[in-house]
Amino acid sequence: MKLLIFLRPIISIFFLLSIVLATNQQTMTIIGANNTLLGKADIIKKNQYYISLNDIGEIVGNGSFINDKTEKIVIYVQGMKVKLSNNISFIVIDDKTYQMKSKLFKTNKQYYAPIDDFFNILLIHGAEKYSIDYNKMSISLNSINQKILNPKKTNTELTKEKNKWKFNTIIIDPGHGGKDPGAVGYRGTKEKDIALDVAKRLEKKISKNMNVKTILTRDEDIFLKLGERTRFANENNGDLFISIHANAAEDRRASGFETFLIGPNRNEAAVRVAARENAALELEGSSTTKLTDEALIKATIAQAGFASFSETFAALVQEEMGKRIQSKNRGVKQAGFYVLMGASMPNVLIELGFISNPSEEKKLKSSKYRDVLATSIYRAIEKYEKTLDTN
């Protein structure tokens, strides 16, 4: 009896919660051409209405592809490929990026997008007109007259999308080269030579131990434009782009290793590093467009869909290098690196150490030390692959 009295308020709380949840969880009727009933999609009301993209995929397309580990969903609406990520407000439609006012969220394996934002962006991208009636809780999609639109084609596209997220190809980019030596140390050590040696060692380790294709942007001492490097990576369908460099500073005491992501310049040190690496643009002639703040912001937004992958790999690089070398871990940072701008895949720029520091230059000249650096990056790649859903 006492137990029943104790449990009574708890039971009441759960009962009230179930009523609240039932009130917030509703359905929205989806209507096609000629007032054809296509189906009903789950919606949730928070500060606004959110609709289940899983249901939308089933009703107006041919299902959805969901990557549970990376929490991404791809659906097809009126022939357009729509890709979103959990807890991110960006939406990618046919490889063009837009931003919703509110973030996508996931609950009970269902992905919910804000209804108004989602359909407004579809309209902006070129979808047929739609109408939403919140009194009748219905959405009219006038151009759709059947539940499945070209299922064979849509299935093929979803398969292609799934394969795109597999880990098949790594692009390794040894910085500088040819007429661009990069930074030069006190003893005459050139950044371009260090970067190429470590890149080749890394390529051998990957080829020997992993079932992943590796391609170097250069395997000899030649000059490449910065934009050509990521263009090469995109043309070869890279799944990860790694640009390898050695750092330099006016203060010879500066030391340590760091990994960069593309993004707005956050601090003076990062600005200086990016400016030095971007100096190669001066060797390319007037045909190359300079990196403006506006272009950097656009590039950062364009890469939002795989930014989390870049961040994960960058953190792993720092972790693995920190285990193996006696040097300062300067962490993961972001700055405006031109070489990362056009990459359509996760990407990082690794600074192995300060060639301007006599002590670190001596280490970088050591074959054994360079092999340890390559091993560190290789181990990071191994761990990174395990974070992906490749099934």
Itemize the secondary structure elements and their pairings.
Blueprint: H1 2-24, E1 25-31, E2 37-45, E3 49-52, H2 53-60, E4 64-67, E5 72-77, E6 80-85, E7 90-93, E8 96-99, E9 105-107, E10 110-114, H3 115-125, E11 130-133, E12 138-141, H4 151-164, E13 169-174, H5 191-209, E14 213-216, H6 226-235, E15 240-247, E16 257-262, H7 268-278, H8 293-302, H9 307-324, E17 329-335, E18 347-354, H10 358-364, H11 367-386
Parallel strand pairs: 1-12, 13-14, 13-15, 15-18, 16-17
Antiparallel strand pairs: 1-2, 2-3, 3-10, 4-5, 5-6, 6-7, 7-8, 9-10, 11-12, 16-18
Molecular structure report:
- The protein is an alpha/beta fold.
- It folds into 2 domains: 26-164, Copper Amine Oxidase, Chain A, domain 1 (2-Layer Sandwich), CATH 3.30.457.10; 169-386, Zn-dependent exopeptidases (Aminopeptidase, 3-Layer(aba) Sandwich).
- 39% of the residues lie in helices and 25% in strands.
- It is built from 11 helices and 18 strands.
- It has helices spanning 2-24, 53-60, 115-125, 151-164, 191-209, 226-235, 268-278, 293-302, 307-324, 358-364, 367-386; strands at 25-31, 37-45, 49-52, 64-67, 72-77, 80-85, 90-93, 96-99, 105-107, 110-114, 130-133, 138-141, 169-174, 213-216, 240-247, 257-262, 329-335, 347-354.
- The strands form 3 sheets. The protein has a 7-stranded mixed sheet with strand order 9-10-3-2-1-12-11. A 6-stranded mixed sheet has the order 14-13-15-18-16-17, with helices on both faces. The protein has a 5-stranded antiparallel sheet with strand order 4-5-6-7-8, with helices on both faces.
- A hairpin with a 4-residue loop joins strand 4 (64-67) and strand 5.
- Helix 5 (191-209) crosses helix 11 (367-386) and helix 9 crosses helix 11.
- It is elongated.
- The model is unreliable at 13-23 and 145-151 (pLDDT under 50).
